[in-house]
Design goal:
This protein is of the alpha/beta class. It folds into 2 domains: 21-146 and 213-253, 3-Layer(aba) Sandwich (Rossmann fold); 149-210, N-terminal domain of TfIIb (Single Sheet). The protein is built from 7 helices and 11 strands. The protein has helices at residues 9-15, 23-37, 54-61, 73-80, 121-134, 149-153, 215-224; strands at 44-48, 65-70, 90-93, 105-110, 135-146, 160-167, 170-181, 186-196, 201-211, 230-234, 247-253.
Length: 254
């Protein structure tokens, strides 16, 4: 791979980082959830915050009718470039706070802590209400979010972290600084990515600000939005939550 091919932060994520994410495993879990928790056959699926389309493309390949939305035009453009005959989701540039569709879906999902990027819990409740309106009776809404508090309680939270990755002749170094506002329940991450081929290098900066919630808070917000039965699991291990849980997987039924 040539360094010149990585000309943006989004391109770096697509060509390097996303290669190592468990997309197929996550989609297998989504399919299992659709079959096990929904009271209707799931055919039409809404992917909220689809990014580069990892899940939209895979679910489309598995036979689902998928609409993927994302606020990033560049992300949607990248996803459009990966569509195939057997993997052809519909895609739309759209802010999830402004979703307005005529069609309805059997299931909606949002992976990679997308909900956490909305920092105001009242806005989150409004988004949940909007999603509730798009999901058919008996359908499900599935989402996940990062939960750093067990890392803090277990003494594993690191204010600074450096990671290295070698891919196809390129070396990537990620240096990140982390901070938590315990009162506002917000996690901050500022990262510097340095990519080199041994002779030259490029640098990308990124900042993530994520809201996190205790399980009871999420139950209250979903209940306020008229979702019924709610299940919360450990998103990495797909088991009951415990003191080692660093991310939640939430399943809400309409």
């Amino acid at each position: 791979m040539l360094l010149e091919e990585i000309n943006s932060y989004e391109a770096m994520k697509e060509k390097l980082i996303y290669l190592y994410l468990p997309t197929r495993k996550q989609c297998y879990t989504l399919c299992h959830i659709f079959e096990s928790f929904a009271d209707v056959p799931v055919r039409k699926v809404l992917d909220i915050g689809c990014g580069h389309g990892r899940h939209s493309l895979e679910l489309s390949r598995r036979g689902y009718d998928v609409l993927g939305i994302d606020v990033s035009e560049e992300a949607i453009e990248i996803c459009n470039g990966k569509k195939e005959v057997e993997s052809n989701p519909r895609l739309l540039v759209c802010d999830m706070r402004k979703m307005a569709f005529r069609e309805r879906f059997d299931a909606a999902f949002s992976h990679n802590s997308t909900i956490g990027y909305v920092l105001d819990e009242h806005e989150v409740a409004q988004i949940f209400s909007i999603i509730h309106g798009f999901v058919n009776n008996g359908g499900v809404f599935v989402f996940d979010y990062f939960y750093p508090m067990n890392l803090v309680r277990n003494g594993l939270y690191k204010p600074e972290l450096t990671l290295h990755l070698d891919v196809d002749g390129l070396h990537l170094t990620k240096e990140s600084r982390h901070e938590i506002d315990l009162e506002k329940q917000i996690h901050y991450e500022r990262s510097t990515y340095t990519l080199t081929d041994g002779e030259s290098s490029v640098v990308f900066q990124a900042k993530e600000v994520l809201r996190y919630y205790e399980p009871d808070q999420i139950r209250e917000l979903l209940g306020r939005s008229r979702f019924g039965v709610i299940y919360i699991y450990d998103r990495e291990r797909y088991c009951q939550i415990g003191d080692q849980t660093n991310g939640f997987l939430v399943i809400a039924k309409k």
